[in-house]
């Protein structure tokens, strides 16, 4: 564990990560767009990290799901341990040369990996890459991401796209299990022995999926 990026030691023990969006009361009542805030928890509901999105009011208002952002993720001591960077890019399957991508750093300033959208006319597809831009995993979503308030699963697969090793799940309001009393927005399930840097990249992928497919949903309300 001495070779792990500082702050990621805890991810070494996790095979399930819960990301819960904090709903701003003013945004819920008035519909105003504010910077997103998240709690990142383990399977017991204990907070491991918290995340705050940084961008301009102009970007949030006009660019919404395609807006650029910097997501700063800090541990419970307030130390920034992961930074997620998203540039402004077109969000349309009609423009395969302008597909989405994320850079994930851990510690900030050091590349941990990338999330790269792959062009497909029917399915949401992404590739998880390591710090050397080598392909590591695939993420494949359903053809319809609106599940009528049912959970929506994006499967995490090996590079051959045949073997499923985990998933990123969107949990709608009303989701209940024996751990949480509040609604959890997303759950990430991956092998416990997956490289912690790739686990950090999976957290970044979760934020990207949220903005691309669920930004205008009713989540959290």
General description of the model:
The protein has 221 residues and is an alpha+beta fold. The chain has one domain (17-217). Helices cover 14% and strands 34% of the residues. It contains 3 helices and 12 strands. The protein has helices at 25-30, 57-63, 196-214, and strands at 16-22, 37-41, 47-54, 69-75, 80-86, 101-105, 111-118, 125-130, 135-140, 152-157, 164-170, 186-189. A 12-stranded antiparallel beta barrel has the order 1-2-3-4-5-6-7-8-9-10-11-12. It is globular, with a radius of gyration of 16 Å.
What would you say about this model in short?
With 221 residues, this protein is an alpha+beta fold. It has one domain (17-217).
Given helix and strand content, the structural type is: alpha+beta
Order the strands across the largest sheet as they lie in space. 1-2-3-4-5-6-7-8-9-10-11-12
Number of strands: 12
Strand content: 25-35%
Low-pLDDT stretches are 57-63, 174-183
Percent helix among the residues? 10-25%
Give me the number of helical elements.
Answer: 3
Overall geometric form: globular
Order of secondary-structure elements:
EHEEHEEEEEEEEEH
Can you give the mean pLDDT?
81
Biggest β-sheet description = 12 strands, antiparallel, barrel
Terminal-residue CA separation: 40 Å
Keywords: Calcium, Lipoprotein, Palmitate
Protein name: Phospholipid scramblase
GO molecular function, one term: phospholipid scramblase activity
Function: May mediate accelerated ATP-independent bidirectional transbilayer migration of phospholipids upon binding calcium ions that results in a loss of phospholipid asymmetry in the plasma membrane.
């Amino acid at each position: 564990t001495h070779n792990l990026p500082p702050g990621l030691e805890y991810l070494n023990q996790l095979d399930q990560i819960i990301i819960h969006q904090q709903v701003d009361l003013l945004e819920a009542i008035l519909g105003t767009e504010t910077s997103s805030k998240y709690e990142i928890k383990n399977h017991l509901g204990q907070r491991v990290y918290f995340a705050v999105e940084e961008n301009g009011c102009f970007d949030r208002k006009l660019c919404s799901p395609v807006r650029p952002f910097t997501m700063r993720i800090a541990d419970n001591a307030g130390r920034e341990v992961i930074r997620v960077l998203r540039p402004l890019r077109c969000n349309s399957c009609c423009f395969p040369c302008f597909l989405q991508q994320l850079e994930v750093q851990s510690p900030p300033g050091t590349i941990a990996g990338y999330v790269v959208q792959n062009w497909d006319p029917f399915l949401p597809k992404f590739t998880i890459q390591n710090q050397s831009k080598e392909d590591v995993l695939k993420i494949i979503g359903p053809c319809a991401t609106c599940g009528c308030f049912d959970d929506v699963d994006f499967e995490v697969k090996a590079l051959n796209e045949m073997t499923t090793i985990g998933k990123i799940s969107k949990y709608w309001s009303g989701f209940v299990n024996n751990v949480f009393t509040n609604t959890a927005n997303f759950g990430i399930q991956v092998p416990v022995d997956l490289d912690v840097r790739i686990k950090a990249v999976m957290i970044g992928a979760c934020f990207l999926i949220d903005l691309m497919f669920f930004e205008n949903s009713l989540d959290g309300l």
